[in-house]
Amino acid sequence: MQATRVKEGRRPLILMRLRQSAEVRKLYAARVPWWRRAPIGYLLCIPIVACGLGIVYLEHLLALHIYVPDLPLVLPVLLVALLWGVGPALCAALLCTLALIYIYVPPQGALMVLPRVQWAADNIDKLAEIMPFFLIEVGIAIIAGQRESARRRALLAELEAQTRAQDLEQLNEELKRADLLKDHFISVASHELKTPITTIRGQAQIALRRLTRVAELPPELENIRLALQKIDEQTYRLSALIDDMLALSSIQAGKLKLRPRRCDLVEICREAVEDQRLVSGRTITLSTPVESLIVEVDSDRLHQVLTNLLSNAIKYSPEQTPVEVSLACRDGQVEIRVRDHGRGIPADQREQIFQAFYRTPEAQASPKDGWGLGLAICKDIVERHGGRIWCEPAPDEGTVFVVVLPLSQG
């Protein structure tokens, strides 16, 4: 039973291969010019063999002793094999062989008069001389058949490659459509979520302000105050996540536009540092060599870059350690360095962390939430400003994120 099932399972595969082979043969025949088709070859092999036979007949009349007397007939068979394939080549070989037997085996017509065994015994030497010709022509026919098979295999491979290319192109188009739909969904969903989240956070903050005006809160109102604080914190996180998703959607769609203007980079860094100090309550130091550094940047986007870097440094470093921010000018460029005292990032992951939605295994295992969007957004914004961003290990412990931007003195 099992053998019967195996045979039944092989039949569709064999039929499919036969159909595929028939289709390839039809396509191969359709691509061949009309004068190179097999029927034309069968017709033209007769005059071509006759030309070669004339040369051999002249050699016979002139009594030229050649080691392979039938050599001039090899070229017609070779020509027929190259132009029309194995079928006409075998036909030409058969005609040449019969003609040589008729010429070289005396007496003429002996094949019809003498018994076959006696005729073969009397003319064994002559037949031996013709045998190399027969073997050569059979070899030519075999080579022609292999050549045709190779052409069909090449054609089949070409067809399969074209089919695969069409399939890949179709899949690529489907992926592009899916990617566009995904970007559109993220954009629409983010916009739709922005308004209710902002409303919820606003209402929670209003309620918190009202409760802070009460001197002594009863226990039930104290619980409400703690709940409102959690609502405010979580809605802030959701709002930040939605901002990142909107920014990433704009970046991937090529709709993120910069509005560069001459700005004081020191002031931008101070604002970002102060904001993160108030939100996190952590110690953040800022070191600048001068009072102002004028750069041609989009201040809002650069503030977003610094906010993302500072929030990551705060999130993945111990609470008792400071976050250090420093500015420096080198060779017409300004360098911003944000250092934390966390565990650091392995060398094999320092490039991958700038990819969207990528998080290191340590970050995934930590209780800190995140989507892996911040650094991807930072990288795109910095590169749009003509700068570079990377991370490197700190001298003692931790990680340093470096942002380099062109400096415009004014």
Automatic annotation (TrEMBL):
- GO molecular-function terms, A-Z: phosphorelay sensor kinase activity
Keyword Zinc-finger listed? The answer is no
What EC number(s) would the UniProt record show?
2.7.13.3
Query: What Pfam family is a match, any one?
Result: HisKA
Note the Gene3D superfamilies from the entry.
Answer: 1.10.287.130, Backbone structure of the membrane domain of e. Coli histidine kinase receptor kdpd, Histidine kinase-like ATPase, C-terminal domain
Keywords, A to Z, come to: Kinase, Membrane, Phosphoprotein, Transferase, Transmembrane, Transmembrane helix, Two-component regulatory system
Q: Entry's SUPFAM superfamilies?
A: ATPase domain of HSP90 chaperone/DNA topoisomerase II/histidine kinase, Homodimeric domain of signal transducing histidine kinase
Q: Which reaction does it catalyse?
A: ATP + protein L-histidine = ADP + protein N-phospho-L-histidine
Show the PROSITE patterns listed in the entry: HIS_KIN
Alphabetized InterPro entries for the sequence: HATPase_C_sf, HATPase_dom, His_kinase_dom, HisK_dim/P_dom, HisK_dim/P_sf, KdpD_sf, Sig_transdc_His_kin-like_C
What residue intervals traverse the membrane? 40-58, 78-105, 126-145
**Domain Histidine kinase, residue spans:** 188-409
Task: Please give the name of this protein.
Answer: histidine kinase
Query: Organism, per UniProt?
Result: Thermogemmatispora tikiterensis
